Amino acid sequence: MAGVTVRDVYKAYGSVRVLHGVSIDMEDGEFLVLVGPSGCGKSTLLRMIAGLEEINSGDILIGDRLVNDVAPKDRDIAMVFQSYALYPHMSVATNMGFSLELRRKAREMITNTVAQAAGTLGLSELLARFPRELSGGQRQRVAMGRAIVREPKVFLFDEPLSNLDAKLRVQMRTEIKALHQEMGSTAVYVTHDQVEAMTMADRIVVMNEGIIQQIGQPLEVYDTPSNLFVAGFIGSPGMNFLEGEARRNSDSAWVEMADGTLLPAPPTSAEDSQPVVYGVRPEALVIDEAAESGLMATVEVTEPTGLSTLVFSRLADVSTCAFTMDRLQLQRGQPVGLVPDVARVHLFDKATGKRL
Amino acid sequence: MITVGQSKHRRWALTAGHGVGLAIFIIFAIFPLFWLVKISLTPNNLLYSEGITLWPSSITWDNYKFALLGSRFPRFFFNSVIVSLTSAGVVTLIAAAGGYAFSRFRFRGKVPIMFVMLLTQMVPLVMLIAPIFKLMVPLGLTNNLLGLIIVYTAFNVPFATFLMQSFFDGIPKELEEAAMIDGCTRLTALRRIVFPLTLPGMGATLGFVFTAAWSELLFALMLINSDDKMTFPVGLLTFVTKFSVDFGQMMAAGVLALIPACMFFAFIQRYLIQGLTAGAIKG
Questions:
Q1: pLDDT for A10
Q2: For the domain bounded by A4-225, which CATH number is listed?
Q3: Alpha carbon distance A333, A302 (integer Å)
C-alpha cells in the first residue's frame, strides 16, 4: 500500500507541450479519477506514473520511493488498458498468472491465486479459454483479474470501460468500485466520461490542455467549480452560461445581459460593470409554467426521460436547459418563467474564466 | 454478395458465374503444371510422334530415374536447398530485427534509412550484375554458394524488412506495455509476447525469400560456373545441350524441384493463417 505523489511534472513531445507542471498528492488507498477532454494529458500522466513515458522534469513518487528512473516492472503497479491488452496466445489462466510466473512464484501458488481472482470476477468457468473466445465484458474482467492477482501497491486504469456497451459499463463501474474498496490499494483512473468520474472517485482531478483545473471531491467539484471549464465539463446536462455585466447595490446583486435582462445573482466579489459569465445548472432553474415569475423564456424542445424532463428554452436569445421532475405539458413556442435558485448560481470572470 | 430480395434465378446465375470464373482461373494457373507432369511422364519416343494429346498412350518413370540417378540433379537440388534455406533464415532474422526497430522506435536517420531501402528496390537487377561480379571476384565469392547467399540476402532484406514491419505494426503496442508492467523487460516482452505473435509474419517472410531464392536464375547463372556449385535453375539448363533438349528429363527434374517448395508452404501455411492476434484487443 502506498500513495502516489506527482510533483511539478512537465512533459513535451518535441515542441508540443503536453503537461505543464502537474502536481497531485494521492493518499494511500484513495480512488483518484483523472478526467478531461481528449488530448488534455490525462493518459500521458497515467502512463508516466506507470513508467511507460519518460518525464521531462519533476518527480513521481510511489509511497516514499522516487520512481522517475524505475522500470515499469519494478514499480509494483498494475494497469488495465482501454484495449485490455490481453496476450492473445495465452489462455485466460496464463494471462492472469503471467506476472506471477515472471516473478518465479511456485506453480501451486499461481494456480491458487488465479483461481481465487477468477472466483471473485466470475471467470472460473473461462480459465481454459483464449481471449478471442471471450466477449468484450469477459475480456474486461480478465484484464482486471490480471491486475488484481499481484496485489500491487497502485492500480492504474486507462479508460477501461469505454469499449463496453452502456449497460455493462454501469455494471463494471460498480464492480470496480467494490473491488477497490475490498483491496484498499491506491487507484488512478483515467476517463473522459464525467459520469464515471463523479460516481467512482474519492477525488476528481479535472484536467484541460495539460493543466490541472481543479482537484476535489466529486460533489465539491460539482457544486463549486473553480472556473468556467470545470463548470462546463462536469455535469450532464451541462451548466447554462449567460453573459452580462455584474451590478450590485447595498443589499442585492444581479447580472445585466446585453438586451437588458436582469439575472438575480448571489453576492460575490464582482465589481460593478465587470463582464461576467452567469452560470446556473439545469436543476437550479425552476420552471414557472404560467410564466408569471422569473426570467421570461420561450420553450423550444422538451426531452422527457420518464424520470425527469429536460426543457430547452430560449432566454434572451441563449439556449437554456432546465431540469424538472414534474411532468409539465409544454408546447413549442410557449412562454415560461425560469426562476434561478440564487444560492446555486455561479459567477465567473469573463476574461479569466475564474470563479468569483 | 447476395442480399435479401434478389430473385432465385439471379442468385443462381451469380453462383454459377462465380464458379465458372474460378474454374477458368484455376485451369489457367494449373495447366502449365499439368503439362510439366505430363511431359515428364511421356516416353521420349512418343514425345514427338503422338502430336499434342492431353495424356500420352503410355507413361514412363525413366525420366525421373535418370534425373535422380543418372544426372547431377541431386547435387543441384542440394545446393539449392542450402542456398535458399540459409538466405531465407538470415533474411528473416535481419528483417525481423529491422522491422521491429522501424515499427517501435524513433531514432535519428529512420526516414533516410527507409528511403534508401526503398531506393534499392527500384534498380533493375540486370544493371547490378556487372558491378556485383566485379565486387565478388576479388573476394573469392564467385563460383561459391556463400556468394549467392550474400547476394540473395542483400536483395531480399529491404522488402522483407517492410513486410516484417507491417506485421509488427499489427501487434498492439499495449501488449508489450502490459507485459512490461507485468514484469518483463523489453527483451523478455519481445521473446514471450511479440515473438510468438509474429510467427505468421516470420513464416510469410521465410516463404517469400525461400521461393525467391529457390527460383532465382540470373545471379546463379552469372556467379556460378562449375557443375558441383550449380543451383537447380542453372542445373536445368544443363539438360539443354548443343544438339538437343531433353525435355522429358528436364521436366522430371522440374517436377522434383517443385516438391520442396510445396512442402515448405504446406509446413508454414498454418502460420500464414491470420487471426492469431484476434482477441488481443477490443472486438
A1: 93
A2: 3.40.50.300
A3: 11
